[in-house]
Amino acid sequence: MQQPGRAAEIKANGIGKSFGSFRALDNLTLDIGRGEFLTLLGPSGSGKTTFLMILAGFVQPSEGKLFSDGVDITHRPAEQRAAGMVFQGYALFPHMSVEQNIAFPLKVRKKSASEIKSRVGEMVERVGLRGHEKKLPSQLSGGQQQRVALARALVFEPGVLLLDEPFSALDKSLRGQMQAEMKRLHQETGTTFVFVTHDQSEALALSSRVAIFNHGKLLQVGRPDEVYDRPANRFVAEFLGEINMLPVKGVRPADNGATGLCEDRAVNMRCKAEAIKGDAILAIRPEDMSIAPEASVNQNGIAATAIASTYLGAATKLDLTTRQGAKVTVSVPNEVAAAALSNGNSVWLTWPAEKGFLLPDGGQ
Ligand SMILES: Nc1ncnc2c1ncn2[C@@H]1O[C@H](COP(=O)(O)OP(=O)(O)OP(=O)(O)O)[C@@H](O)[C@H]1O
């Protein structure tokens, strides 16, 4: 964080934070790679902002250590960390023009007038605000104001840019534009980005890795496809999108080879030999399930009854219950849904073996 122009590598080691008896963060250990776009994702109150504030130096951790490029910065004050920041409520200076706002961090750092002029000009160009330099924030749209905030946060080439729900006040289409712009700025600057959101689709679309928080704990960190396709637990699976959960009793993986038929009589499924034994949840994303014309022992599958259908235009959503009473949702082609419904509502659901994964039953 202290070397301008160079992306920082950050290590959080056993970070905890208590507010009185309330535990806002618990034993958080996380490496943030140089130049990575890491998103902190979790529901309201899960500790994301607290962690960002600890990274910024505005909040002191109760336990643990923080390193930037191998240097212990746990107790270093915020102004010496030189992290760029864009917060939802992090207002621009209202009496300063666009270019004065962007120039501010360079003035504080006592840069020469010529350097300030060229760097501000470059940033104005980069965030698409050419022609707006002399305007005050009040004369700009919400999206333009956030562009100024991004430019101001990046102009001094911080090692890390911290962003806390910067676009949550913007409408959906503007938000999409700003996301694309932020992704481009990340690629162009090569800076380490740490981005807070509670919007899972935003996290999956933007990040090189996603860190998922709940109740002050880091539950899983991984690439978007890793956390979506192989969630570590039930909370992560459900938080990242719709998911079907089939309870399976007494899972006993076949002993021969890596995959075999798990011996659960209710659910015909394949799972890894080293998979969970005993009771488990078989989790499958709705888009990975389909309706087969008939049952086959060579496919993972389960009998189910359609209880409701919703026409979505491009497809039909079917709500079903399995014979064991689990509720399942699938999205299928309209003609497949029509055929299933004309067939007394009984269907055979299947999914590719690698798309179903076992989670421990109960708890998180
Ligand atoms: N200064 C403080 N004093 C007491 N409690 C606090 C303080 N700051 C945060 N908390 C509590 O710590 C918990 C985590 O808050 P935090 O702001 O980190 O969550 P968050 O995941 O960022 O949520 P949101 O998405 O709503 O911003 C919350 O329950 C919050 O009330």
TrEMBL record:
Instruction: Cite the PROSITE patterns for this sequence.
Output: ABC_TRANSPORTER_1, ABC_TRANSPORTER_2
Q: Pfam families, from UniProt?
A: ABC_tran, TOBE_2
Q: Does the keyword Nucleotide-binding apply?
A: yes
Q: SUPFAM superfamilies this protein is in?
A: MOP-like, P-loop containing nucleoside triphosphate hydrolases
> Keyword set for this entry?
ATP-binding, Nucleotide-binding, Transport
Domain ABC transporter positions: 10-240
In terms of PANTHER family, this protein maps to:
SPERMIDINE/PUTRESCINE IMPORT ATP-BINDING PROTEIN POTA (PTHR42781), SPERMIDINE_PUTRESCINE IMPORT ATP-BINDING PROTEIN POTA (PTHR42781:SF4)
Q: Identify its protein family.
A: Belongs to the ABC transporter superfamily.
Q: What is this protein called?
A: ABC transporter ATP-binding protein
Species annotation: Mesorhizobium hawassense
